[in-house]
């Protein structure tokens, strides 16, 4: 039973265009959501997060949108750059910010930025 | 700080052998997590500690798996005996109370 779902295993986007990665969740107790980026042979690194009291959080080229009624969040990257090619994991936690009780991860979306 | 340090980076062992994975957390982080990544199941939380005390081990797949945190600067994940289906990448992550989790580079375990 997957509580966090990333339905697109891979996504190919042209350099300079917008990349949109989607994530759905089923657990209503989740109140903090994060995106992690992972390069091959490295651990996931934190990218951006959003609390359930907000519907948008922006950091440079990265924006995360949260639609609580739909239990859906998305990560927008604009403009996309070659260095953005990586696997992106959506993660969620319940009860505390930052995931101090452990994170539930989606299976990831492999983003490929084409020149 | 050098970040979360895991060792070894790669481990190849024969079925039935004992395997010990090691993690050194970021200094000052009170929470330590062990995750396992497989193609089929993605990233799964196995167990986590708070102030060296195991809080939730419900993700540990079998009794063959055990984890310890004898002090604030060291944790181990042990598999005894190991089986081919344990082959995966094992990540250690740590966090403070209101910080995001920081991951180590992982240990790629292959059981043949």
SS field, number of helical segments of chain A: 0
The residue ranges of chain B in which pLDDT falls below 50 over 5 or more consecutive positions are none
The count of strands of chain A amounts to 11
Q: Give the SSE string of chain B.
A: EEEEEEEEEEE
**Rg over alpha carbons of chain A:** 13 Å
In terms of DSSP E residues, the strand content of chain B is: over 45%
Overall SS class of chain A: mainly beta
Low-confidence stretches of chain A: none
List the chains of the largest interface with their residue counts: A-B, 23 and 27 residues
Quote the average pLDDT of chain A: 92
Q: What is the terminal separation of chain B in angstroms?
A: 36 Å
Helix % of chain B is under 10%
Q: Which helices and strands appear, and what pairs or packs with what?
A:
The complex is a heterodimer of chains A (115) and B (112).
Chain A: E1 4-5, E2 10-14, E3 19-25, E4 30-38, E5 45-51, E6 56-59, E7 62-67, E8 72-77, E9 86-94, E10 104-105, E11 109-114
Parallel strand pairs in A: 2-11
Antiparallel strand pairs in A: 1-3, 3-8, 4-5, 4-9, 6-7, 7-8, 9-10, 9-11
Chain B: E1 5-7, E2 10-13, E3 19-24, E4 31-38, E5 42-50, E6 53-56, E7 65-71, E8 74-79, E9 88-95, E10 102-103, E11 107-111
């Amino acid at each position: 039973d997957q509580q966090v779902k990333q339905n697109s295993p891979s996504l190919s986007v042209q350099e300079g265009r917008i990349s949109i990665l989607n994530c759905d969740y089923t657990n209503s107790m989740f109140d903090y959501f994060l995106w992690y980026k992972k390069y091959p042979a490295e651990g996931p690194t934190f990218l951006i997060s959003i609390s359930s009291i907000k519907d948008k959080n922006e950091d440079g080229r990265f924006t995360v949108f949260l639609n609580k009624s739909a239990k859906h969040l998305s990560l927008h990257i604009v403009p996309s750059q070659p260095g953005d090619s990586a696997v992106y994991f959506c993660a969620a936690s319940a009860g505390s910010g930052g995931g101090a009780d452990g994170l539930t991860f989606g299976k990831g979306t492999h983003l490929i930025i084409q020149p | 700080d050098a970040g979360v340090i895991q060792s070894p980076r790669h481990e190849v062992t024969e079925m039935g052998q004992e395997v010990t994975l090691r993690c050194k957390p970021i200094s000052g982080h009170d929470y330590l997590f062990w995750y396992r990544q497989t193609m089929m199941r993605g990233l799964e939380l196995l167990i986590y500690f708070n102030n060296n005390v195991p809080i939730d081990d419900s993700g540990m797949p079998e009794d063959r798996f055990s984890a310890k945190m004898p002090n604030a600067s060291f944790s181990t994940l042990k598999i005894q005996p190991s089986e081919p289906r344990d082959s995966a990448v094992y990540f250690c992550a740590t966090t403070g109370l209101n910080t995001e989790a920081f991951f180590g580079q992982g240990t790629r375990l292959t059981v043949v």
